[in-house]
Amino acid sequence: MVETWLPLIAGLVLLVAGGELLVRGAVQAAERLGVSPLVIGLTLVGFGTSMPELVTSVQAGLSGSPGIAYGNIVGSNIANILLIGGISALICPVVVSEATLRRDAALMLGVAALFAALAFTLPMGRLFGTACVAGLVVYIVTVLRQERRSAKRGRLHDESAALPLADPNLEAAPRHAGLVAPLLLALAGLGLVVIGGALLVDGAVALARAFGIGETVIGLTIVAVGTSMPELVTSVIAALKRQGDVAFGNIVGSNIYNILGIGGTTALIAPGTVPSEIVTFDAPLMVGVSALLVVFAATARRIDRWEGLSLTAGYGVYLYVLWP
Fold first, then answer.
1. What are the structural domains, with CATH classification, of the chain?
2. pTM over 0.85, yes/no
């Protein structure tokens, strides 16, 4: 029994530790090169915190486990909204900026609906993957341009605001310092993420077989929550520091990355079909909870504690319905 759980737990630990080292090293290297915090937040931090999901989904797709590959993506988005969003709002009501609501939250809902519709009608092939990755590039470029204009007017809003919250020492990295140590740190983190992803997929498959549980259920729950740990930590710290907009932006941004970046890359490297149980239940649910989050955020531009409680309770109901 222990042998069944050990690879899964070890994989989760390596993913979280590796993601932390990867983000820390990449951010320090970028700062020492004089790259702006805005670019760091939208690229390095965004990709770094999504690296566990990316590696896990790609490796699962290559291993012939689409239930884990796409269950991880859809399950992470559901967990980000119901679990992480709910906990963040319970800690401190989440204030939402108009720019985030109109641009990022609307895009999150749109790509969720597009994914659900395409998964219902088509296999996830390389054309879909190319379109998703191209869409992510367009999104990043658009946000960078808009945020640079906002920054000049003193209204900087981006995911990099979570950086000093997660580690206050990162913003103080001296630019004249060497690059060798940060690059080695980032490479070490990447190596841990790759190893952890492989262990997580192997452990999840073994667990599913040992207990007679479908791989899709494992992917939607244990794997999805495990790979979402960086987002959970960042959002909770932001909520504790009364930076609710950072928590909301982290959740919304992660969901966009998950579908466009991770879903697109997975389809490019390992084309496949989304399992029918995800197509008929979990993907539509992802669209529904995305819409619910937008509605909550649009009312008075904040997510109150009672709404956070309803989101958290909703995740409990989801697990109850899903788990055999």
1. 2-322 (1.20.1420.30)
2. no
